[in-house]
Write a structure and sequence with these properties.
Length: about 425
């Protein structure tokens, strides 16, 4: 099947391809085969990209999608309050059906907002059925997803059998792949970290781990290096306050990092370390993190990262931030050969943004406009591996009213069982208080 995306302003994010003020992108069987100012393909299905910016799909490298039903409830929470509220109060009442609905609606929201690739950092696995429900939801959403199975919190429990069971259903090809969410040196013993990493290597899985103690003087990266546990297949999430020498350790190992600027700032985790990571030789990726305390769109995430770093040192440029949300995100997910740029040979993960919308018109500098003024309302069309999943501003073949009603029922049941309010008045007492 041939498809021609024609007449848009192409921002390829590939230096070899460049940007085109007016360009065409030809697809065959879901793969990009040509990018040029004009392409003659009379037998191709045409997508008219006039007055559109054609961009590679956005990549979110860390999202706790199962929490979607509780959007906005934790807008004023600290990180300590979030842990008590979500993991200590709400999570015990989640059934597999609740996980399914949160993951499905959250993944659809991401697609609606132009996120074609998303790593779902799942840590609601009270039972195998909960994990299976999360996977089923990602299968039912027509995006490119990485199911990152979280091994748990502050435990040394064996996870081998369950991870192998989940892996057997996710062989690693197609749109849905798998990664392993490590407990990490701040949550378990170094021996357990080593066992988890060996398990991931045996199964061919990339790994992701939260690192959040840097501001307290911790040296988790140095400890991992000392034990020979740093590699180029691990993404370190947050890493606020990590010393410069530890950031250089990550860069030397080829590891990747994921910044969640809105959550890090509003929850008091620390300043996003964008500039310091770049100075250490790291290329950050971006993530939205969690729905209770932050929005789920990558445009706001890009703008927050950009504005904060510009305010700190003035050294960041918009093109860098757009790379964080596309090519650098794809690299962090191990998918750089398949997505992240408009490059011949890569899968056709594309988004078309309305350049004629009054909020961005005239889009004189498309990359700068996307980072400083972009928003989900601009996302007109979304393609994943050449399949149109959003057209003319609407998701294709999705019964949103029915799914929304089911999510509200799920939310209400969990909130009632937990005895909590949803109107912003619930301020849980931190465990240390």
């Amino acid at each position: 099947m041939r498809m021609l995306v024609t007449g848009g302003a192409v921002v390829s994010m590939d230096p070899a391809v460049g940007d085109l003020d007016r360009g065409d992108v030809l697809l065959e069987d879901g793969v990009i085969v040509q990018v040029a100012e004009r392409i003659d393909a009379p037998d191709a299905e045409v997508i008219d990209a006039t007055d559109r910016i054609v961009l590679p799909g956005l990549v979110d490298t860390h999202r706790h999608t199962w929490q979607t039903a509780f959007r906005g409830v934790g807008a004023d929470w600290t990180f300590a309050q979030y842990l008590v509220a979500v993991h200590g109060t709400l999570k015990p009442h989640y059934r597999p059906e609740d996980v399914y609905l949160g993951n499905l609606l959250g993944r659809l929201e991401a697609l609606h907002s132009g996120v074609t690739t998303m790593l779902d950092w799942f840590h609601c696995g009270q039972s195998p059925a909960h994990a299976d429900a999360a996977v089923a939801a990602l299968r039912d959403a027509p995006g490119r997803s990485v199911f990152c199975y979280g091994a748990g919190f502050r435990t040394t429990d064996p996870i081998d059998a369950e991870v192998r069971r989940v892996r057997s259903a996710l062989p690693g090809d197609g749109l849905l792949t798998m990664a392993l969410g490590l407990r990490g040196p701040e949550m378990t013993t170094m021996d357990t970290v080593a066992q988890d990493l060996k398990l991931a290597a045996d199964l061919g899985l990339r790994t992701s781990v939260h690192i959040e103690s840097g501001g307290a003087g911790g040296r988790p990266i140095a400890e991992l290096l000392e034990h020979g546990l740093l590699s180029d297949t691990t993404t370190f999430v947050h890493a606020n306050g990590i010393d410069d020498d530890q950031l250089r350790m990550l860069a030397h190992a080829g590891s990747s990092v994921s910044i969640s600027p809105a959550v890090e700032l509003t929850m008091g985790i620390g300043w996003p370390e964008t500039g310091r990571m770049l100075a250490a030789g790291l290329r950050p990726s971006l993530s939205t993190d969690d729905a209770p305390s932050a929005g789920g769109d990558m445009f706001a995430t890009m703008r927050t990262a950009y504005t904060v770093q510009r305010g700190l040192d003035g050294g960041l440029n918009a093109r860098d931030v757009l790379a964080f949300a596309t090519v650098d995100g794809a690299r962090a997910c191990g998918l750089a050969a398949r997505t992240g740029s408009i490059t011949p040979g890569k899968d056709a993960d594309l988004i078309l943004l309305r350049a004629d919308d009054l909020t961005v018109f005239p889009a004189n500098n498309p990359a700068g406009t996307i980072v400083t003024a972009g928003h989900p309302g601009l996302v007109d069309t979304v393609l994943v591996a050449g399949r149109v999943v959003k057209r003319d501003g609407r998701l294709v073949d999705v019964d949103l009213p029915a799914l929304k009603a089911r999510l509200v029922e799920s939310r209400n049941r969990i909130a009632a069982a937990a005895g909590v309010a949803l109107d912003g008045t619930w301020h849980p007492r931190p465990a240390s208080a």
